[in-house]
């Protein structure tokens, strides 16, 4: 047993809060239910990527009502763990005393016109599955330490 307090709230962050952090928010809600408050945000919020909605729907998780949010709208006192998902870009900064974890996941979204629809879907599935694997491991660690 650990002396660490149990996780009550997780904030997932990436730049646009459109793909990786949205996938993570949906997966976090699926894994933790109402035991943990799960949020996502970004430094340059845009919109939830339709590919993120599609690949989450494939596993029975509906994220179509999630919204892209600015990190500035998140109350630092409402978060005890921040998980950043940026890889090649600069991750947003979150002010507050939250524990920080970094999982570098390549952005599955692409503006490259040579990448086909199926290739983009495959990239989103890969990001979803990577995040799910890390989140399941994280959840198991919390059970063991809590």
Radius of gyration: 15 Å
Secondary-structure class: alpha/beta
Indicate the low-confidence ranges by residue numbers: none
Tell me the helix content: 25-40%
Mean pLDDT: 91
Strand content: 5-15%
- CA-to-CA gap between the ends? 7 Å
How many helix segments?
3
How many β-strands, per DSSP? 4
- Global geometry: globular
The SSE order reads EHEHEEH
Strand arrangement within the widest β-sheet reads 2-1-3-4
Sketch the major β-sheet.
4 strands, parallel
Q: What's the topology here?
A:
Layout lengths: L8 E6 L5 H13 L4 E6 L7 H8 L23 E4 L14 E4 L14 H29 L1
Parallel strand pairs: 1-2, 1-3, 3-4
Helix pairs in contact: 1-3, 2-3
Task: Provide a descriptive summary of the structure in words.
This protein has helices spanning 20-32, 50-57, 117-145, and strands spanning 9-14, 37-42, 81-84, 99-102. The mean pLDDT is 91. The protein is globular. Helix 1 (20-32) crosses helix 3 and helix 2 packs across helix 3 (117-145). By secondary structure, it is of the alpha/beta class. The chain is 34% helix and 14% strand.
């Amino acid at each position: 047993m650990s002396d660490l307090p149990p996780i009550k709230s997780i904030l997932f962050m990436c730049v646009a809060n459109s793909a990786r952090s949205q996938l993570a928010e949906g997966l976090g809600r699926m894994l933790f239910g109402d035991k943990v408050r799960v949020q996502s945000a970004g430094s340059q919020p845009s919109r939830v990527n339709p590919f993120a909605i599609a690949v989450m729907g494939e596993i029975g998780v509906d994220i179509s009502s999630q919204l892209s949010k600015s990190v500035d709208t998140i109350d630092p006192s409402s978060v005890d763990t921040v998980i950043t998902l940026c890889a090649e870009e600069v991750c947003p900064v979150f002010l507050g005393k939250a524990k920080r974890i970094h999982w570098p996941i390549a952005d599955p979204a692409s503006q490259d016109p040579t990448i086909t629809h199926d290739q983009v879907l495959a990239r989103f599935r890969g990001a979803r599955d990577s995040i799910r694997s890390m989140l399941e491991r994280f959840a198991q660690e919390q059970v063991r330490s809590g």
